[in-house]
Specification:
Blueprint lengths: L1 H13 L9 H10 L10 H6 L2 H7 L5 E6 L4 E8 L15 E5 L18 H7 L3 E4 L10 E2 L17 H20 L4 E6 L1 H12 L7 E7 L11 H6 L3 H10 L4 E2 L4 H10 L7 H12 L11 H7 L4 E2 H13 L10 H8 L16 E5 L8 H10 L3 E6 L9 H4 L3 H19 L7
Parallel strand pairs: 3-4, 3-6, 6-7, 7-10, 10-11
Antiparallel strand pairs: 1-2, 2-4, 2-5, 8-9
Bound molecules: 2-acetamido-2-deoxy-beta-D-glucopyranose (2 copies).
One 2-acetamido-2-deoxy-beta-D-glucopyranose binds next to loops.
Length: 433
């Protein structure tokens, strides 16, 4: 219950600043892109209720489902769109393989819910890629385990993981699976938010994985969070370890699961004619930063039908620790003894970013409370092989715009595709940026 109260408080605290009217920003966007036309959902309620395979099938794209079990027993669901619908629409063994990894409390749905022409997975499939989408342990598509029960009462063992495990165990398991299935040695990786954090974790803790990455594109890169401006996380940071202890005592290991209440709220409160719609957009802006022009409010029932998709309390606590101590280090178990047991040291060790030697491209923006420019610059300096740093050419672009912005294609996806194609064409060593 405290979660709901907390969220409600924060949301209402933000209400006075809604609906800024037309800004120079919207004129600028119109000038650049014109009217982007109807390339979105053709039925809001239907799309809010379909799962990823259902959605992909509905819009005429080929879908494959794959389950893969991690060494510690989590069963992860992956989705694959093997080819396009309108272009590049035959299976072809030689397509470049691209792996997409979602952010916190999200899922593979991020890459498809905006519909053909707007969702990155569809755009990539049309552009000639073999598209794989991962799902982190604990979310809607990866909420099973060979032994542990995510719904066990007063036993949160299933939920005792943060993005350390997602990077250290889930990503390597999924990537190896994709490479075997596609008969490749290497692939391209795109991550959003926590999908970037987990990548840096994987490559610093398990450097052999650097060789399996042709290029990595970090959308809203999150490693250092010293300058984080996200209200909820800031609020939690000083007491991150207490949050973990209290929630564990209360038997709460999961945060923001995908559930019927959210979907109901999405479809009843967030629809176009609803007076509550501003509350819905406030929740999104509260998390990701303000950018009224780039959010298609009509799509909010679909967004809330798929997000949040579930995560552990620890994922948030781990970010909270990074905000509090301004570092990028492994999960702090809260006691010297527990840390010693896990890491052989009193304090959790830093993730050594110099070990991330895969070629990394960072894509960042000015209005992202979770990936502040200074933090992104520090990350860029410390990475083993940073190749390029690209500012999204729209100052108001925020954290969630990478996934849901009306002009995400023009503002970010097209550039990523151009970079991946350039790497495919000339190789990373001969790349001219
Ligand atoms: C917003 O989404 C609706 C429903 O998918 C779509 O018809 C409309 O064209 C979109 N608006 C913009 C500005 O893209
Ligand atoms: C994957 O696992 C889930 C949950 O255990 C199950 O419902 C689903 O049928 C499995 N899918 C495939 C393709 O094996």
């Amino acid at each position: 219950m405290w979660k709901v109260v907390l969220l409600a408080l924060c949301v209402y605290a933000n209400i006075p600043s809604i609906e800024g009217g037309s800004s120079p920003n919207s004129e600028y966007v119109k000038l650049l892109f014109g009217d982007s036309g109807a390339r979105y959902s053709n039925n809001i309620i239907e799309d809010a209720n379909l799962d990823v395979p259902g959605l992909v099938k509905k819009y005429g794209y080929p879908i494959e489902m794959h389950n893969v079990t991690t060494p510690d027993g989590y069963i992860l669901g992956m989705h694959r769109i093997r080819h396009g619908r309108d272009a590049n629409n035959v299976p072809d063994e030689n397509k470049p393989v691209i792996f997409l990894m979602h952010g916190i409390v999200s899922s593979s749905a991020d890459w498809v819910i905006m519909g053909p022409g707007a969702g990155f997975a569809y755009i990539l499939a049309e552009a000639g890629f073999d598209v794989w989408m991962g799902n982190a342990r604990g979310n809607f598509y990866s909420r099973t385990h060979v032994r542990l029960n995510p719904d066990a009462i007063l036993n949160t063992n299933y939920w005792k993981f943060s993005w350390d495990e997602i990077g250290n165990i889930d990503l390597p398991t999924m990537i190896d699976y994709v490479l075997v299935k596609t008969n490749r040695q290497r692939l391209h990786y795109v991550g959003h938010s926590q999908g970037t954090t987990a990548f840096f974790v994987m490559n610093s803790l398990r450097p052999v994985y650097n060789d399996k990455i042709i290029s990595m594109h970090a959308l809203a890169p999150v490693a250092y969070m010293a300058h984080n401006r996200n209200t909820l996380l800031l609020f939690m940071a000083p007491m991150a370890n207490d949050v973990e202890k209290i929630s564990s005592l209360m038997g709460i290991g999961e945060l923001l699961p995908n559930n019927a209440i959210m979907s109901w709220a999405g479809q009843n409160l967030c629809m176009d004619e609803s007076t509550f719609q501003p509350v819905c957009s406030n929740i999104l802006f509260l998390i990701g930063g303000w950018n009224v022009e780039q959010l298609n409010k009509t799509m909010m029932p679909v967004i809330f039908g798929h997000s949040p998709a579930g995560s552990s309390v620890r994922q948030f606590v781990h970010y909270g620790q990074g905000i509090a101590d301004k570092g990028f280090r492994r999960f702090d178990h809260g006691s010297r003894m527990a840390n010693r047991k896990a890491y052989g040291s009193r304090r959790p060790p830093n993730y050594d970013l110099s070990k991330v030697t895969a070629p990394v491209f960072l894509h960042y923006s000015f209005n992202d409370p979770l990936a502040e420019v200074q933090d992104v610059e520090r990350l860029f300096r410390e990475l083993g092989r940073p190749v390029g740093k690209f500012l999204v050419p729209l100052p108001a672009f925020n954290h969630i715009d990478y996934i849901w912005a009306i002009n995400a294609k023009e503002l970010i996806y097209d550039r990523v595709i151009n970079l991946v194609r350039a790497v495919e064409r000339s190789g990373i060593d001969n790349l001219v940026l």
